[in-house]
Design a protein that fits this description.
10 helices, 13 strands, globular
Amino acid sequence: MPDKTVKRAWRARRRTRLVPFCKRGNLIKEDREIEPMRRVNTLTIFRNHPVFSKLPKASIEQLGTYLTKRKIQRGTAIFRKGDAGSELIAVLSGNVKISAPGADGREAVLNLIREGEIFGEIALLDGGPRTADAVAMSDCELMVIERREFTALLREHPELAFKVIEILCARLRQTSEQVEDLMFLDLPTRLAKAVSRLVDEAGGTWPRKISITQRELSQLIGMSRESTNKQLRSWAQAGWIRLERGCIVVLRPDALARGA
């Protein structure tokens, strides 16, 4: 009887175990054996994903055998700049911040990755180290595929490579636009443009809420938190937005669009 009890406990431990997400990250729960219903839901997400939707059904099923699901808590470092880049990551739920740390402790927010998007593609494709930090802005559920499996999939389906190239080009355009904004736009215009873009990406009915702190927003536009807070409070007094803890509710998108 004791032997059977030990074996059952050992099997349960194998099915769900705690592993480190990255060298500096917190411990997370990794579900290597996804329940059938949850696995179907995951494959449905990938069938509807703009990158993977053109793949044949058999390839989607094959992709599902390579995927690892990971749940992480808000504030967890998914990877850091300079870490080995061996995984492509898709966000099933939650938001992830991509940022570059400065020598003085400040950071520049380069991108915000939301549900349905992928990240980590640069290091995955060229085999080099990570070019930025990735930190969970909220509790997240992620799907991860290793480089060796994904590159094999690219060789089998060249059209998938073009989709990844489209994502890289779109992010390069966005980075170029951010640099132009930093050089040529004043604070109100830069902030209005950033909030308008985030609220468009959020979608849904009005009024729309975007989950971002004032500090993160200031890092996104390259301004101090104090200056950003002052401008946001001015818009709140004018009835354009409503400030809530950890988020901004946009009430007058037309007014923000004129400011951008």
